[in-house]
Design brief:
The chain has about 425 residues and is α+β, with helices and mostly antiparallel strands. The chain is about 50% helix and about 10% strand. The protein has 18 helices and 11 strands. The protein has a 4-stranded mixed beta sheet. Strands 3-11-8 form a 3-stranded antiparallel beta sheet. Strand 5 and strand 6 form a beta hairpin. It binds protoporphyrin IX containing FE. Protoporphyrin IX containing FE binds next to helix 11, helix 12 and helix 18.
Length: about 425
Amino acid sequence: MHQRYGKVLRFWMGSSDLMVSISDQDILSQIASTLHSRPKAAKKALGWLGHESPTFKSHEELRTIRSKVMPLLMGESLKYLCLVGQERTKRMLDGWKTATDAVEVASDFSEITFDIIGVALFGQEFSSTDLGQKFKKLFVHVLREAHPRSEEVIPSFWDPKYWQWRKSISRLQDCAEQLIKQRRQALNMNKRKDLLSLVLSEKDGSGNPFFSDEQARATIVTFVFAGFDTSASSLAWICYLLSQHPEVQARAQDEVDKVLAGRLPEFEDLDKLNYLTCVVKEAMRLYPPVPEALRALESDLEVGGYSIPKGATFVIPISMLHEDEQIWEEPRKFLPERFTQENGKDHPRYAYLPFGTGSKSCMGARFAMTEIRLVLAMMLQRFSLQLVPEQEVIPEMQSIILQPKYGLRLNVVTRNMNGTRGQTLEYSASAGVANA
Ligand code: HEM
């Protein structure tokens, strides 16, 4: 529609929901950071996160939550994330090594990103206890049903599946509550690095817990929701693009070989992988995992000669901004060099928004960039990627995430270490988080 009607357009979803999508840089810079509320449709689709979720907080409350949570997602917890990521990725890649056929990587990424975020947020118990496994099963059921359910005008009370879904939501909340209870009782909570322990240890000005159990539960469940399909989608699109651009893949492998010299990547290594970082950013430009951000207009707005009434939904069309010909030369081309230190500075502020913008922007951007580069570096050390010839790759919105419609089957070809013949890469260091 933007291609047909230009940078400002309006349309209706159904008979009453006015949507206004704007890809004009001037208008975005005037208003994008002043809109703080999610539209009703998002609230309907995400109600299952719990009403204490950061998603539903007012601007002021969210500011306080972000100021408490964002520092917890830096430094030590990113190092812990790397330990968890190493272990899970190694396990996945060991499976690839023995695969006799092409590998369905999109579903493998979905599996490991769920495990990585689960352990990084809840601690080791997440993957090693029945409670963690139960949480995972319920979460996936609730998530996969949530989007179609949110599109129903009248909830389908007559459908037993509707009631199963409702039951899964309440069982999921119970599970998260039990995980929190166990953690509050754990003796060594203040020494642990998982996000749940950090959140529960936060204090307010009078030394009391900052987060109630209900707030902690909704915050952590929101993080699982926001952080697993997004990272999995990003990994899948990066691998697809690498399989289509063998010269880019070879250059990224070369960098990984030089920087890591056969070691497992550590947190400190990731910022040295400059070219790989450009590859990730450019892939997120072409295939942003979240291709649009929505805001509710809470009062009438006059901007750029347009009048937009209160109640309209404002769309920030991320994928359109990423392909704006006035900003990006040959926008459909995969050119990681666009994001080198010298070139990356030149883009206008609202030209590149894979993690959204303003007060509702992604809280896990650093977390995601750490996780994605870690998984990719380990993968490129050991394998080269080739798309299987019959694989059709079509982007499709599944819920709010851009996914390859028919998955992504790749031939994963074992590499020789540093290009030398005969010896395949095996890590001498053993990856492990048990003692972290
Ligand atoms: C490649 C991976 C990811 C991408 C592309 C991504 C992108 C986004 C986008 C576009 C938004 C909405 C921003 C807006 O409305 O302006 C968002 C929100 C959010 N993201 Fe991410 N994200 C990713 C990974 C993560 C991870 C790993 C975490 C957690 C560790 C996370 C946590 C969040 C949270 C908490 C929100 C706010 C949710 C809300 O207010 O409803 N994200 N993300």
